[in-house]
């Protein structure tokens, strides 16, 4: 088995600052003569080729991230990363790297100071602070170099951040920015870009609060427009934010602090996503405070809106008001969707309070109204909101729909509206339908249903669903399968039917009598199997999967339903129409029949052989159908000879078997007796005396019973050399087999192979009767050997 601990993916950072996957392999460390040192080697798992050969340099800064990632730079613009499948493998390689560099493996970065001597490091630690040059146009280049040189060192970064913060440097820089723009000083603007970008990488909340203030944030964005890599064509981010992006208050926000916070969060998010360049490996962790700034802003916005009861009341009132125009409702729904998406950043207890507030305000009745509208965009946004609610608390949604069914018709129930939107999705790829099907699956999943002392949510909700909703879900299936083949077989319809079948298959697996009653009473399986004639293979396979799940339950109610309606017929027909093609259809059908054979589903085995054997007997490239026929014949044999079946049951039953490892004294003496005491030609088991009577009983009564045994022993002696049984005491002892025998009516009965006994059915039948008439007779079995011993001997 391959060691997955050392399994890695190799990544390199391209010119666009995006990670390229160079392949998957297994990493090792060892001395490489050519590189004159310990190196990391990665060989591809596909062909063993060398994906990476990198010397572990003592001065290279290696960084461990997220427990399974090691990153480093081998050149100025060449960053590498190893992504491990398992944390244990990452830890092993990290220890090797730290061992070469003489570092403690507990650190996450091996070189904290880059290109600094010990003297410089001591000077940094002993100096009180970092002195910044005057904030003047002529000193911008010097300042840009100072910022760039300070970033690699955490200590120098800290000192630089303190100096910028204490001297109010950011506002001075932004004043210079306005001067450079007025003067069209391109060099100065390029230096300011590098300086402001470096200040972002200082990762300090106090600096962000200044930069993102109302009076500074647009100038900060302006500085970041002048990337030297763009030359004389700067970006126009400020134009977009001031002219294109418009803030709309769908419900007037009376709190100016809340309004300012929303503006700020949007702009900072824009800076993170659109303005700042993609961070390199070492810069990514330097922006963690920026991520946190946005995160806490969103939490604060949700909390402030949640506490404003007037705002939420007005929101839901306008959402459900029929007089609200379409454009306004569209804006309201989009706002509510964004509101719910912000809630995903909340801690669990805060998220609970958020959704309880929305529930109390009537979000589910509002969604029911919105989903009934004709506007596709509004319905799409409402679906996204509904998905947040289902993901948070499916029980809350189930409770609502069960309550509303007491007041509303089935057509306007919330779940039926969801099903109808799934069925009527106009997207050629059915993207919306797939999303809605996932929501329905969550709602009908018994695993997330609650059970209390007073009621069981599973029972109540499933009863509701099958009574009020299942007919809506299955309507397209029933409408399209009225004949021998699908009435509509286009791609979009087939995709929809496949989704419905996927949900029905889930119900078969997870629901019990509800789905069973529905399938049998509505003859659903017969309708589903019509789809095996579809020209779309994926739909035919979905139909087969549905039947396979039903058969896999081994439920005789289902089996009788299948046999009564001859529902294997369309399966056999599809198999024969597929011909000799080796494809998924062929494999799926054969696997279904193989399951019936292996699991020995007797009723289905008999049904298949009796009705479809002539069609399937020519299939000889697999042994499945011949195996089914053999199973069927064995069943018939047992039915025709119940005595034989009973005897086999006795042989399988351990209640008639004593511990086979224990020998009675008589048996042990017989085994230990010297074989030489027997004369040549003397049979170990003499021929049975048909006239010998059973002690305590009449001889005539057992005469007929013992006759087949006598004949059997005579045949055994004729086969053996010298006319006697070939099993001698010593041979039996050497073979390791325990000779089991007994005394029946004064006649020694030799060890008898089960295979021999099966061949002689009449003997087997008589042995069974003999056992019934001889209560003191014990039957033994070991290693396929059958024997008898009467108690007391």
From TrEMBL:
PP4R3 EVH1-like domain location: 5-101
Pfam families for this protein: EVH1_PP4R3, PP4R3
InterPro entries: ARM-like, ARM-type_fold, EVH1_PP4R3, P4R3-like_central_dom, PH-like_dom_sf, PP4R3-like
All residue ranges annotated as the Serine/threonine-protein phosphatase 4 regulatory subunit 3-like central domain in the record: 142-634
Record's protein name: Serine/threonine-protein phosphatase 4 regulatory subunit 3
Gene3D superfamilies given in the database record: Leucine-rich Repeat Variant, Pleckstrin-homology domain (PH domain)/Phosphotyrosine-binding domain (PTB)
Chain segments carrying region Disordered: 681-705
Functional summary from the UniProt entry: Regulatory subunit of serine/threonine-protein phosphatase 4.
Family membership: Belongs to the SMEK family.
Gene Ontology CC: one annotated term: protein phosphatase 4 complex
Example of a GO MF term: protein phosphatase activator activity
């Amino acid at each position: 088995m391959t060691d997955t601990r050392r399994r890695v993916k190799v990544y390199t950072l391209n010119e666009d600052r995006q990670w390229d996957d160079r392949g998957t392999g297994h990493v090792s460390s060892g001395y490489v003569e050519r590189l004159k040192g310990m190196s990391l080697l990665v060989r591809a798992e596909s062909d063993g080729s060398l994906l990476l050969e990198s010397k572990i340099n003592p001065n290279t800064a290696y960084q461990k991230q997220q427990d399974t990632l090691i990153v480093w730079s081998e050149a100025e613009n060449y960053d590498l990363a190893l992504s491990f499948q398992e944390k244990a493998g990452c830890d092993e390689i990290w220890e090797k790297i730290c061992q070469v560099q003489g570092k403690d493996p507990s650190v996450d970065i091996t070189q904290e100071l880059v290109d600094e001597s010990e003297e410089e490091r001591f000077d940094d630690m002993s100096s009180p602070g970092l002195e910044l040059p005057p904030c003047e146009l002529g000193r911008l280049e010097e300042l840009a170099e100072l910022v760039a040189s300070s970033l690699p060192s955490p200590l120098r970064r800290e000192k630089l951040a303190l100096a910028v913060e204490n001297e109010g440097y950011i506002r001075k820089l932004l004043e210079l920015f306005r001067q450079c723009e007025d003067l069209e000083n391109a060099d100065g603007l390029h230096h300011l870009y590098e300086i402001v970008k470096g200040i972002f990488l200082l990762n300090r909340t106090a600096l962000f609060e200044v930069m993102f203030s109302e009076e500074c944030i647009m100038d900060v964005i302006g500085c970041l427009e002048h990337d030297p890599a763009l030359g004389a064509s700067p970006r126009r981010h400020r134009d977009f934010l001031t002219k294109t992006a418009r803030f709309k208050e769908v419900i007037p926000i009376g709190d100016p602090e809340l309004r300012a916070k929303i503006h700020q969060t949007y702009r900072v998010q824009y800076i993170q996503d659109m303005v700042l360049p993609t961070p390199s490996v070492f810069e990514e962790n330097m922006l963690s405070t920026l991520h946190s700034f946005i995160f806490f802003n969103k939490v604060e916005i949700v909390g402030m809106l949640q506490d404003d009861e007037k705002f939420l009341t007005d929101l839901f009132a306008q959402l459900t008001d029929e007089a609200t125009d379409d454009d306004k409702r569209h804006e309201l729904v989009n706002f509510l969707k964004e509101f719910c998406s912000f809630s995903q950043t909340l801690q669990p207890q805060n998220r609970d309070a958020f959704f309880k507030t929305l529930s109390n305000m009537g979000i589910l009745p509002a969604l029911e109204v919105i989903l009934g509208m004709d506007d596709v965009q509004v319905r799409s946004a409402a679906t996204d909101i509904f998905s947040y609610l289902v993901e948070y608390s499916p029980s809350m949604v189930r409770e609502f729909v069960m309550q509303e069914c007491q007041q509303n018709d089935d057509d306007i129930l919330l779940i039926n509206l969801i099903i109808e939107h799934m069925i009527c999705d106009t997207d050629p790829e059915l993207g919306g339908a797939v999303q809605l099907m996932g929501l329905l699956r969550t709602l009908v999943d018994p695993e997330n249903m609650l059970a209390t002392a007073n009621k069981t949510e599973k029972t109540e909700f499933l009863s509701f669903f099958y009574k009020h909703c299942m007919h809506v879900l299955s309507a397209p299936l029933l409408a399209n399968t009225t004949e021998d083949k699908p009435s509509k077989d286009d791609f979009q319809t087939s995709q929809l039917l496949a989704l419905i079948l996927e949900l029905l298959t889930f119900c078969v697996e997870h629901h019990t009598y509800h789905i069973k009653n529905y399938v049998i009473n509505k003859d659903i399986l017969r309708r589903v199997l019509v789809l095996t004639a579809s020209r779309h293979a994926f739909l035919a396979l979905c139909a087969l999967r549905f039947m396979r799940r039903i058969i896999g339950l081994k439920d005789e109610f289902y089996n009788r339903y299948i046999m009564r309606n001859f529902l294997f017929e369309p399966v056999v027909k599809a198999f024969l129409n597929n011909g000799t093609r080796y494809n998924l259809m062929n494999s799926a059908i054969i696997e279904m029949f193989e399951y019936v054979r292996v699991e020995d589903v007797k009723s289905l085995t008999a049904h298949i052989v009796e009705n479809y054997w002539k069609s399937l007997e020519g299939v000889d490239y697999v042994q499945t159908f011949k195996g089914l026929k053999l199973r069927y014949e064995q069943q018939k044999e047992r039915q025709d000879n119940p005595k034989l079946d009973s005897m086999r049951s006795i042989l399988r039953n351990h209640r008639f078997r004593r511990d086979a490892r224990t020998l009675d004294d008589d048996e042990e003496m017989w085994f230990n007796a010297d074989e030489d005491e027997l004369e040549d030609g003397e049979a170990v088991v003499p021929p049975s005396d048909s006239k010998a009577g059973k002690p305590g009983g009449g001889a005539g009564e057992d005469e007929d019973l013992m006759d087949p045994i006598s004949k059997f022993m005579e045949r055994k002696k004729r086969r053996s050399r010298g006319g006697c049984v070939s099993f001698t005491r010593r041979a039996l002892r050497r073979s390791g087999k325990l000779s089991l025998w007994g005394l029946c009516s004064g006649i020694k009965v030799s060890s008898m192979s089960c295979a021999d006994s099966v061949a002689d059915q009449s003997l087997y039948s008589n042995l069974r009767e003999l056992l019934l008439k001889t209560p003191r007779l014990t039957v033994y079995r070991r290693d396929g050997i059958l024997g008898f011993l009467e108690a007391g001997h």
